[in-house]
Amino acid sequence: MGSSIQQATNDLMNSRYAIALSGAGISTESGIPDFRGPKGIWTTDREAEAKAYQRYELFLRDPKSYWEEMLGSKGTYGGFYDEVRKGKPNPGHYALAELEKLGVIKCVITQNIDGLHEKAGSKNVVEYHGGVHKLRCASCGTRFGFEEISLENLPPRCKCGGAIKYDVVHFKEPIPSDVVERAEEESLKCDLMLICGTSAVVYPFASLPRMAKLGGHRASIKVVEINAESTPLTYEGISDYLIQGKTGEILPEIVKGIKLIVNSR
Ligand code: APR
Ligand code: ZN
What we know:
Layout: H1 3-14, E1 18-22, H2 41-44, H3 46-61, H4 63-70, H5 77-85, H6 91-101, E2 105-110, H7 116-119, E3 125-127, E4 134-137, E5 143-145, E6 164-166, H8 177-189, E7 192-196, H9 207-213, E8 222-227, H10 232-235, E9 241-244, H11 247-264
Parallel strand pairs: 1-2, 1-7, 2-3, 7-8, 8-9
Antiparallel strand pairs: 4-5, 4-6
Helix pairs in contact: 1-11, 3-4, 6-11, 8-9
């Protein structure tokens, strides 16, 4: 086992309250493209990125057109959501679920909208950017299962009269306050943060590792990155070390190491 994987295994075993953060990189091995990697959605289609930045304004201005775009056929962004909904967890997701079962990590705060952490068995998941399996009333914040709401008449309306949108948090859309509170509470509480598969360039999510570094355990906190490439967290020394490689390979190695220690006690 590589030395940095060994180090992460020991650091996790010595932690009292470890949490994991994840980004699109953990889902690429499920066939869901990331955004800024070499074959990322934004890397390969700048127009799609520009449209994504307009999406929330479109919803506010014309929720019916928002839905017509979001329910588009294959190839449109709506088609991407259909693909994402069908996604399957990979060994990286299962490893994080296993670490939660072993009591080693307490929660996962994910930027991903694919719901793959829950599908893999993780129970304590904060979906920081919402998810494609849920809808949310833009006025009162009530959330609904995707199947619960008829899309016969667009936009679907909440009992409060508000227009309902995807629970997905679009660019320039505020992160729902219940999610912000939970994510900040966990980041300030943790004494180890395992950051898996994110370029750490999108705020406010990218402020969570900095918050952890300055949080309650500032002296002893460990911030560990598992990523295919270095990120600003690496360059700025926010992370103590980077384990460079695939989350679907590294995380199962860490689980193996932890089980060896637990079973030898
Ligand atoms: N294992 C480890 N790292 C990987 C893997 C993998 N199998 N595949 C890709 N990566 C790395 C990429 O090199 C990149 O550094 O994961 C990172 C993914 O970064 P992004 O594509 O920017 O995804 P993310 O950080 O989740 O984006 C944040 O941006 O577009 C918005 O809302 C969207 O939630 C998303 C947010
Ligand atoms: Zn409502």
